[in-house]
Amino acid sequence: MNKGELVEAIVKETNLSKSDSEKALQATLEAITNALKEGDKVQITGFGTFSVRERKARKGRNPATGEAIEIGATVTPVFAAGKAFKEAVKAKKD
């Protein structure tokens, strides 16, 4: 499912216009992104938690040359699925 298909799913579920659904989705994504930028976590009960994790600098290898390289420290977004979300996905597969 891509963003356009997600907007269509919101339209069907909420009976909002396509324009309003797209604005709501965009506002949600921006709110999550801004919270993570500020170092906050976003917890949606029953769905999951978005947070930021710091990764330390480490040594790696260039796969093309085998040369040792230094990989810098970075900050990366992380999503941890909530129990209800995991169970809903598992139930669908069974």
What does this structure look like?
The structure is a single chain. With 94 residues, the protein is α+β, with helices and mostly antiparallel strands. The chain folds into two domains: 1-39; 41-94, Irregular (HU Protein, Chain A). Helix content is 46%, strand content 29%. It is built from three helices and five strands, in the order H-H-E-E-E-E-E-H. A hairpin with a 6-residue loop joins strand 3 (58-61) and strand 4 (68-71). Helix 1 packs across helix 2. The chain is elongated. The model has no long low-confidence stretch (mean pLDDT 94).
Highlighted features:
alpha+beta; 3 helices; elongated; 5 strands; single chain; 3-stranded antiparallel β-sheet; HU Protein, Chain A; 94 residues
